[in-house]
Amino acid sequence: MTPEQLLQHHDQALLWGQAPGVVGGPDTAAAYQQALAVRQLRQQRGEVPRGYKIGFTNRTLWQRYEVFGPMWGTVWDTGLSFAEPAATGEAQGSIDLNRTCQPRLEPEIVFGMKATPPAHAGLQQLFEAIDWLAPGFEVVQSHCLDWKFTATDTMADSGLHARLLVGQRLPVQQLAADAQALHTLLAQAQVTLFKNGQAVEQGSGTNVLDSPLNALHHFLKELRQCPGAVDLQAGDVITTGTWTDAWPLQVGESWRAEFSAPLGRLSARMR
């Protein structure tokens, strides 16, 4: 499938209609080049990259989806929004499901960058390049029927990314003194996910490559090994992977994620 065809299926929320592995092919590097070609097309028509999503960082899901390692894709200005803080301390927003394909919801931790990490950055240098973190909802989608795909399909499919809603942004220096402290905080944190007021699943930060900070570090190295990929920049937003399974979505539903203190709560209505 050409980049133009991939973009058309994305825009029109159309299933690919091919067996798993056909579109992504056998080669990881080639699948990412397909995604980067789609990225270029989207930039040419005026969309602005705002950062990245990291997927399949949650090892507990690898067997279920038959994808056995992380992948990544671009976050766009056209799909990124920020929730409004409420007096209750719960950030609230809405997510537009129009033109999404088999959408599902994931509660995640999102990082905002204040600088490009140095070459060969360790965890502490990466920590020093982070501005804030926040709870988030990523809406993921698949153009493969019934979410049956190969790893390379997910790479060619823009990392399965559709939307990102970011909750209250917390300055990282107020949460932790150094990288080790942040790693420990996030690894020990829990989330409870609610659908229409009913708890549906609990998850842990340790599910995400042992912590979302580790996931970000892993991604940075992978990104820099991909020919043609754009390095992290100041202002970039990176969502690091789901703490629970990905839950199917319908218009009209209300979802809430309650993260351990001090990470906060986030709610969203699907429209």
What does this structure look like?
This protein is of the alpha+beta class. It is built from 8 helices and 14 strands. The chain has helices at residues 3-12, 28-44, 62-65, 123-128, 151-156, 172-175, 179-188, 212-224, and strands at 49-55, 71-76, 80-82, 90-95, 104-113, 130-140, 161-166, 170-171, 190-195, 198-204, 237-239, 247-248, 254-259, 265-270. The strands form 2 sheets. Strands 1, 2, 3, 5, 6, 7, 8, 11 and 12 form a 9-stranded mixed beta sheet that branches. It has a 5-stranded mixed beta sheet with strand order 4-14-13-9-10. A hairpin with a 2-residue loop joins strand 9 and strand 10 (198-204). Helix 1 (3-12) packs across helix 2. The mean pLDDT is 97.
- Helix/strand-derived category reads alpha+beta
Can you count the helices? 8
The stretches of 5 or more residues where confidence is low (pLDDT under 50) are none
Name the average pLDDT.
97
Order of helices and strands: HHEHEEEEHEHEEHHEEHEEEE
Helix content: 25-40%
- Strand tally is 14
Ends: how far apart? 31 Å
Largest sheet geometry: 9 strands, mixed
Strand content: 25-35%
Which overall shape is indicated by the principal axes computed on the Cα atoms? globular
Rg (CA only): 17 Å
Task: Give the arrangement of secondary structure elements.
Layout: H1 3-12, H2 28-44, E1 49-55, H3 62-65, E2 71-76, E3 80-82, E4 90-95, E5 104-113, H4 123-128, E6 130-140, H5 151-156, E7 161-166, E8 170-171, H6 172-175, H7 179-188, E9 190-195, E10 198-204, H8 212-224, E11 237-239, E12 247-248, E13 254-259, E14 265-270
Parallel strand pairs: 1-11, 3-7, 4-14
Antiparallel strand pairs: 1-2, 5-6, 5-11, 5-12, 6-7, 6-8, 9-10, 9-13, 13-14
Helix pairs in contact: 1-2
